[in-house]
């Protein structure tokens, strides 16, 4: 009996939640709203999915080494890159560009390949055109899926907080080229 009551409660919760999370989709971006009532504004949860292309090779690289490795550095510790990488709808580099990832990543571990990521994702498509999300996190690139905090945003992403899940789609052994899949989940007003 208790388990029946529990499953009924669970069922009602699911129905309630699906009422709250009415989904609207615009291309790669999907918005679920409204999420919750907090104070004056209604918070929304938005989920984004795209691919990040980091290309250090060739004549027009989208990522450049700007620092180091410093003298005496172990395993490249301190090496820093500045990037202006395209974000695309699909994994193919020629698929539609939905924004750019601008900022810095640096080798922040003396023992492993662990990156400090300080990035702005600047979107150029649909309702998110002109809006940005700011990432500040640790990226242990040897892990299959890495979680990076979203610490803020602008435009439609004002008051943002959330997280990004990053998974390498493909990379060259020397990290000259990497395509990374991103799933982002953010709360914002
Ligand atoms: C990487 O950049 C080089 C030179 O700019 C270019 O030839 C190559 O197609 C790029 N690769 C990808 C996958 O974007
Ligand atoms: C995004 O906004 C810029 C500046 O307002 C505009 O020039 C551009 O055409 C817009 N792009 C899209 C895809 O709406
Ligand atoms: C992103 O979400 C899609 C759909 O749920 C899933 O197939 C994919 O594995 C996820 N990728 C990451 C990096 O979380």
UniProtKB/TrEMBL annotation:
Its main location: secreted. GO terms for biological process: phenylpropanoid biosynthetic process. It is found in: Secreted, Extracellular space, Apoplast. Coiled coil: none annotated. Pfam families: Dirigent. Dirigent proteins impart stereoselectivity on the phenoxy radical-coupling reaction, yielding optically active lignans from two molecules of coniferyl alcohol in the biosynthesis of lignans, flavonolignans, and alkaloids and thus plays a central role in plant secondary metabolism. Belongs to the plant dirigent protein family. This is Dirigent protein. The lineage of its organism: Eukaryota, Viridiplantae, Streptophyta, Embryophyta, Tracheophyta.
